[in-house]
Design a protein that fits this description.
Largest sheet: none
Structural class: mainly alpha
CATH architecture: Orthogonal Bundle
Number of domains: 1
CATH superfamily: lambda repressor-like DNA-binding domains
Distance between the termini: 24 Å
CATH class: Mainly Alpha
Number of strands: 0
Radius of gyration: 10 Å
Strand content: under 5%
Shape: globular
């Protein structure tokens, strides 16, 4: 994982937790599976630009 990807994942986790969202709730808001959010946060998969945009809006 590149440094930029690591930064994105850490920021995503930080702001998700700061706003009190669970992975499941964020996934619901972004119309993806809970596993998709978990895989992104673990660095297993990379989100598409559209999904990054949805995460940012959430």
């Amino acid at each position: 994982m590149t440094e930029n990807q690591e930064n994105f994942v850490e920021n995503m986790k930080f702001y998700r937790k700061k706003t009190g969202l669970s992975q499941a709730k964020l996934a619901e808001m972004c119309n993806v599976s809970n596993g998709t959010i978990g895989n992104i946060e673990c660095g297993v998969t990379k989100p598409s630009f559209d999904l990054i945009f949805s995460i940012a809006q959430a």
